[in-house]
Amino acid sequence: MARFEFPEWTETLKKWINLLVLGGPVYLIVLIAYGVTPEAIRIGYQPDQPVPYSHALHAGELGMDCRYCHTTVERAAYAAVPPATTCMNCHSQVKKDSELLAPIRAAFAQNEPVRWTKVHDLPDYVYFNHQAHVNAAVGCETCHGRIDQMVKVYQAKALTMEWCINCHRNPTPYLREPENVTKMGYDDPSSSPHRTEGEGERVQKKNGVKPNVNCSTCHR
Ligand code: HEC
Ligand code: HEC
Ligand code: HEC
Ligand code: HEC
Ligand code: HEC
Fold first, then answer.
1. Which residues sit with their C-beta closer than 6 Å to ligand 3?
2. Which of 191, 165, 177 is nearest to 138 (CA)?
3. Predicted pLDDT of residue 16
4. Minimum-distance ligand to the CA of 119?
């Protein structure tokens, strides 16, 4: 029996099939990275908020410390977003009739939470903990960028697994003396105060900082 010959055009078809088979896994990875967990990696994500609260004004110009409002960063996994009462400490006097602050006054009067929209949002299967980082001490700036210059908060870093692990393998350049943890612009040598020579090494040694890279550290 004569050997069956595939016509010429099927060679081209085979090349395409090979490409699809080889390209499949790559496509899947891309799908997982960008399709399944879009929230975590959206650099620049900047949702509207019910009140145009400005960090550039309050944390920048007025120089308020982050912990005045985000009270739990040193002792809990979750960084608390302030209730209306915190705002009313000042806004029962300052700009007390401002239209912009009406939702805050309403929440305060009804003793209800303000409905802020979450900016940073890791997938549920990832465990993150502020307390561990803030006490270690990694600055807010390292993970959230120049919040003190943001009129409206946006996500500065892609919160990928690679990003977490890169620092866990070598945290030294990111560590600060604990009193500098909320300072902004601290990594810029032209600003004052700024990171001192060997600060990371000193802190790491003194506090025995050694982040884990076991899967169960972040997936539990
Ligand atoms: C006067 C209170 C106040 C101060 C001070 C303050 N914040 Fe905030 N912060 C808020 C409020 C209210 C929100 C929620 C609304 C928004 O996202 O703008 C928020 C949101 C955030 C978010 C986004 C949270 C999310 O949903 O992912 C980050 C990050 C943040 N603040 C970091 C900081 C840092 C860093 C500092 C210090 C440099 C700081 N904040 C100082 C009140 C404050
Ligand atoms: C330590 C005092 C203080 C606290 C606490 C504070 N603010 Fe303010 N806020 C100010 C000052 C001062 C101004 C600027 C007033 C001016 O422009 O004259 C201001 C201005 C504002 C404005 C602009 C109002 C307008 O009509 O121009 C908004 C909106 C605002 N704050 C929201 C908030 C929210 C939301 C919170 C709570 C998360 C908060 N503030 C907490 C002091 C404070
Ligand atoms: C090592 C990186 C890192 C550092 C340092 C860090 N954050 Fe965060 N922050 C994150 C991540 C990641 C999320 C999102 C957590 C989630 O979705 O579970 C987040 C979320 C937040 C939120 C929203 C509430 C929450 O917990 O999900 C606020 C507010 C916040 N951070 C403020 C701060 C402040 C203020 C500091 C400094 C005192 C700080 N962060 C330091 C990485 C960091
Ligand atoms: C810039 C550096 C840096 C980044 C980025 C970072 N980490 Fe960490 N992480 C640390 C340091 C430092 C510690 C503290 C280690 C120690 O105390 O020995 C730590 C500790 C932890 C712990 C241990 C908490 C505990 O209870 O033991 C968890 C969980 C964790 N990180 C999760 C994450 C996740 C998830 C991300 C990414 C979303 C992340 N980290 C990004 C530096 C970082
Ligand atoms: C320091 C924290 C950290 C450690 C350690 C870690 N992961 Fe992750 N992992 C993350 C974060 C954050 C994400 C979410 C990334 C995103 O949304 O893009 C993630 C996502 C994943 C995903 C979902 C697919 C993907 O890529 O988005 C898998 C699977 C995974 N991790 C497996 C592992 C395994 C296996 C290990 C141990 C070898 C491990 N992780 C160790 C932080 C960590």
1. 66, 70, 73, 78-79, 81, 120-122, 128, 130, 133-134, 138, 140, 142-144, 159, 181-182
2. 177
3. 56
4. 1
Which atom of ligand 5 is nearest the CA belonging to 212? 5
Q: Is the CB of 133 under 6 A from ligand 4?
A: yes
Instruction: Give me the residue label for tokens 């990111």.
Output: 174
CA of 18 to the centre of ligand 3 (A): 44
- Which long-range CB contacts under 8 A does 112-119 form with residues at least 24 apart? 112/84, 113/83, 113/84, 114/50, 114/51, 114/83, 114/84, 115/50, 116/49, 116/50, 116/81, 117/47, 117/48, 117/49, 117/50, 118/47, 119/45, 119/46, 119/47, 119/153, 119/154, 119/155
- Of the candidates 112, 107, 98, 93, the one whose C-alpha atom is nearest the C-alpha of residue 54 is 98
Amino acid at residue number 193: P
CA distances from 32 to 28, 41, 98 (A): 6, 12, 45
Instruction: Return the ligand 1 atom nearest residue 114 CA.
Output: 12
Q: Which amino acid is at 34?
A: Y
The predicted structure's pLDDT at residue 42:
87
Average pLDDT per block of 10 residues along the chain, 220 residues long: 58 56 53 54 90 98 98 95 97 97 97 95 96 96 97 95 97 95 93 91 95 95
As a whole number of angstroms, the distance between CA 76 and CA 65 comes to: 18
What's the pLDDT score for residue 192?
A: 87
Nearest atom, ligand 3, residue 159 CA? 12
